Amino acid sequence: MSIPESIALYMYKMALTTVAEKRISDLLELAEDLSSKDGPVNRLFISEFVDTEGARNLENVWFFTERMALEAKNFLAEDDLDGIIFADNIHYWHLKKVEFHPKVAPSPKSRLTLTVSFGGGGTNAIDGELKASGDNCPFLYSLAREVFASNLMP
User: Over 70: is that where the pLDDT of 74 sits?
Assistant: First the structure.
């Protein structure tokens, strides 16, 4: 399976290890198969954070089609995927930013956390959390603006 150029460029910019690249490539193939009726995966996002010692920790990888989001939790250690239709199915989103502005290059101290609630809210809501640090912040901000904020339920 060939990785789309935009996804390959994002993975390159994330400076992933060979192990992380292989895991994402394998999971991308699985996500493509699981979402085949909804079209190809056209975007992905790696949720990560920097710990107190300054090490980047990769948590989850999110795969997106035109209408669907699939999340691979703890992707470096296990195969644990779930999916949801996000198109017109965002009940609530919350963006928390630290030392980040969308029109200025991020610094190593930049942080973003996006919390999203799918499915109408209440007790039936399904939540997701995406995190970014440093150079990953513009990718999460773009995702928040282009995918999640634009798909709020009417």
Answer: yes
CB 100 within 8 A of CB 141: yes
| The token pair that represents 141 in the structure block | 């901000």
- Please check whether residue 96 is in contact with residue 112, taking contact to mean a CB–CB distance below 8 angstroms: yes
CATH of the domain spanning 5-151: 2.30.29.30
Q: Are 102 and 17 in contact (CB under 8 A)?
A: no
Over residues 144-154, the pLDDT tens digits come to 999 999 988 87
Q: What is the pLDDT of residues 123-147, one digit of tens each?
A: 677 899 999 999 999 999 999 999 9
The C-alpha angle 149, 113, 41, rounded to 5 degrees, equals 60
Q: What are phi and psi of 118, to 5 degrees?
A: -100, 155
pLDDT tops 80 at residue 121: no
Rounded alpha-carbon distances, angstroms, from residue 150 to 89, 120, 126, 146: 10, 15, 18, 6
Mean pLDDT for the stretch of residues 100-126: 88
**DSSP states of 42-66:** -EEEEEEEE-TTS-EEEEEEEEE-S
